[in-house]
Structures are given as structure tokens and as C-alpha cells.
Write a structure and sequence with these properties.
The complex is a heterodimer of chains A (300) and B (275).
Chain A (H helix, E strand, L loop, with lengths): L12 H19 L1 H23 L34 H37 L1 H15 L3 H12 L3 H28 L2 H8 L4 H37 L11 H8 L8 H28 L6
Chain B lengths: L5 E10 L2 E3 L2 E3 L2 E11 L4 E5 L6 H8 L7 E6 L2 E2 L4 H11 E4 L13 H16 L6 H11 L16 H13 L5 E5 L7 H18 L2 E6 L2 H7 L2 E6 L2 E7 H6 L4 H8 L16
Parallel strand pairs in B: 5-10, 5-11, 8-9, 9-10
Antiparallel strand pairs in B: 1-4, 1-6, 2-3, 6-7, 11-12
Helix pairs in contact in B: 3-4, 3-5, 4-5, 5-6
The chains are: A mainly alpha (300), B alpha/beta (275).
Amino acid sequence: MSQIDTSLPRAGLARSARAEARARAIYRFRQSLLSVIGLAIAVILITVALLAPWLLPYPDDVTGAVNPAVAFQPPSAAHWFGTNSVGQDIMTLVIYGSRISLLSGVTVILLALIIGGALGVIAGWVGGWIDEVIMRITDLLLTIPSLILAMAVAAALGTGIWNMIIAITITWWPTYARLVRAEVAAKKQEQFVIASRVLGVGPMRLIGRHVLPNIVTPVVVKASLDVGFAILLVASLGFVGIGVKPPTPEWGTMLAEARNYMPQYWWTAIFPGTAIFLAVLAFNLLGDGLRDVLDPRTRR
Amino acid sequence: MSKPLLKIEGLGHVYGARRGLFGTSPAFRALTGIDISVARGESFGLVGESGSGKTTLTRNILGLERPSEGHVLFDGHPVIDLGRGGERRLRRRMQIVFQDPQASLDPRMTIHDTIAEALVIHGPDLGIARSGYTRRVLDLLEAVGLGREHLYRHPHEFSGGQRQRINIARALAVEPELLILDEPTSALDVSVQADILNLLQRLQKELGLTYFFISHDLGVIRYTCDRVAVIERGRIVEQGPVAKIFDTPSQDYTRKLMDAIPDPDPDLSPLRRLA
């Protein structure tokens, strides 16, 4: 045997193994056409939302400018998606609406993840009566329909995007608390966690280094699926009139208004409706695709 | 005999009764009156079927559970209620290799990080600086028959036998005096079992380790241990030097276990059909 270089033990091998794993994951994701479509739509939506200020054909319409002379124009070269009852460009509103929908959808899930995740870890790790208390509160909150709670919050604090986000988050974090608690409680009993404990590893390091990295998969999958549902819920709240306040354009609110002008002025409803549909679909497909990549056991 | 390294006195463990909404689950007595003493440098075997209380005993020795009766003394000191510093010192001196080599390795960690974790916790006590971790991990891997090319791989890239070598390397990282071997070979192929047992014997000789060897396989115990205790339903039914127990078992239970050893001569096997 020849002498191997001892100075750089990390050379080559590590990267190649990791690169190979990544290549395999990408391959698996690409195997599913639907996931790729989901990812593509999601990326386009996020890009549009980020670049919205530069993409708006009629920026003034966002702040509530009206132009009755061009009310109810059908889709044309000047107004690709047509105009609404007060002559605002629907494409402008839909593009700007993507910011509201994606922002609130993602914020709700992030907040729910942080709150529910933290409480879930505590409940699952500590156990005992602390677990009981946290999980019974969780069960209690799960019984409140988010729509009803959002109405109550809107009634109490007034309508507005942040009140809506708070209301949805209150009803959403318990689902994460449940998921994380179950995963943590299961991982806590795993042999490799006990082995580290016997080695003298403290609870913080056990949770941070061994438990959390091993429960990321189901949590990430749920979160990406949930973003779609959160967007739908935001739109529903807008539709029933307790979500984002006009003139801020929001897909659900636009749809509610368009309801009055169906079916003659179909374009006022079709485009915001399609936007909602695409956003929810995209995150659902993306979540399914991620599950296939991250959790091979559930693959067909 | 010198002072025993591990002394178990009158140990009993009862899993508490749980009162639930739909009635009470009864208390379960897992261990009764266990007396064992393991001398420094010997290999002590513990034999018993599954469900006989071996795992509970292990957890009590490790201080992961509080005994209901009696106590476990390591080098004369109890293994529970040590406080942070005391517990760390104990962990350094007593380690375990579990039965399932795959389940005892964190699937997301490289072998380097898994073994180096022992050094992160105990490095200062061992006199190893952060910069020396990789060197030390490599030495440990080589001691158990693995090499540099395995350093940054993940557990799923190894065979069962290799994984068990990694578990042994991790346990040895803290330079323990007592190594508890909880069925270290029962999840492995027969040919690999022999490799691991030989490795363990070599390590014991080189490092002067004391083994507490748990198994349901009497053949393995006979091969590795000096003294043996037989446990049945939470009680030690027989205890003594391996040769004596194997040659003149006094208990039916021990005889039953011994009859379960497969005969190494295939021609005598009842499963063998006449060709």
C-alpha cells in the first residue's frame, strides 16, 4: 500500500458523495413531470411578485385610480386581461395581487411553523404534563374554523392584511405543533439519539444536531403543500369581504366584485380566478414532488 | 478479588402503573433482586431470552432509568443523580454498543461527525484539541479496521458489519473502561459475527477493557466471556464461570437455552435429509 496524503482528508470524496446524492434527488424530482410544472409555476409566480413594480402596465390603478371611460373593456392589446367596472387594468391588479397572496400565504406558514414547531419540540421532548398542556391547547385551537376566527379578528381589530395573517396563523400553528411533536417524540426514542445521550451529549445539542435534522422532511413537505392552502384561505377571506381592504388589489376580493358582472364581463372573474387556481396548484404539485424526493418511502 | 468495576446490588425495576381515562394499566416488574459484580478487565456475559429484562438492566446500568430498588455502582459510585460534571465523567468511563448497528447511527451525519461528537463533548478531558479531532477519528477507524476513505461517508453507505465497527469506534472514542455490548452481533451475518467478536477480543487485549456482554446466543458468550449470568424473567437464575455453567448447568432454563445452540456439525443436524 502506498502512503496516502494525510494533509487534506476532506478532499474529493466528500463532495462526490454529496454531489451524487443531490444528482439523484434532482433526477427523482424530474421523473415527475407534474412536480416540475409545479416548481415552474411557483418560480414564475414568485418572480412576478418580486418584480411586480416593474411589470405593471398601469401602475396608477394599484393605488385606486379610476378611469370610467374605459370600464369593462374586453381583453385587448392595450389591456391583456381587460378592465373592470371602474376601468382599472385587470392584469395590473392580478400581478400586484400576487404580492399580497404569496406574501400572506408564505408569512402565515412561516409563522405557524415557528410557533407550532417550537411548541411541538418542547411537548415532544419534555413530555409529561407540559406535553399534555400544550397538546390540549393545540386540540382546542384546532376546533376553531379559521374562517370564523378570521371574521372575529376582523370584527375586533378591523380588516387588514396583518390582522388576517394573525387570524390564520392562530388556527394554523396547531397542525405544525402536532406534526413536530409526534416526530420529535418518535426520534427521541431512536437508538442513535440514545447513543449520543450515553456519550454525554446535552439536550440542546441532541435536539439541534440529531432530532431536528431528521424531522425536516415531513415538515418541509407539509409546509410547501400548506402554502397553497393558505393562499386559498386568504382568497376566501377576501371573497367574503374580511381580508385585505380595497383599494389594495387581492385576488379573492377581485373575484367577489366580479361575481356581480358575470357572465357578460367574464374576464373580470376569469383572470384572478385562474391566478388563485395556478398558485394553489403550483404549491400542491411542488409539495408532492418534494415528498417524492425527500421521502422515498411514499413513492409509488 | 480486587474492587469490582461494576457492582449491581439488589436491583429491581418496576415500570409504573399508568392511570388513564380508560382504566389503569398494571405495574410491570421487569427486574427483581439482581446482584452482579464485574471485575476490572474481565468479560462478563449476560444471557437471556428476549423480554427477560436485559434491556431494562442495560438502561439501569447506564443511568438512563432510575432503579425502583437497589442500586448500580460504577467504581463504587452510583450512576444516577451525578449532576452535570459527574455525569460527563461517568459517560467517559462507560460506553455501550447497541444491537442494531444501523439504528444507532444518525443517518444524516457523516461517520467523521458521528465519532467526533464524542470528542466535542469530552475533548478537553481527553486532552485533544479541536484540530486533532480528525486525526483521532481516523486512528479510531483504523483501530476497528476501517480507513480514511470511510471518513466522510454516511451510515447507509456501509454494510452491517462496518456499521457495527463504527459504533465500536464511537464508543471507544472516549477511552472508556467499561464497554456494554448489547447483542452486538445478533443483527449480523454469521461470518461477520466472527469478525466483530475477534475485533472485540483484540481491542480488549490492547486497551484493557472490561466487557459487559449481553446476548441470547450462548455460543457467542462461550466464545468471549469469562463469567456468565443467566437471566430469566427479570431474575438471575444462575451465575458463575463460563466453563462451569456450560458443562454443568444447574437450571432447566439454562439447559433449554443451551439446547437452542445450533450444532456446528451439519451431518448431525436433524434438518439434514439423507442425500
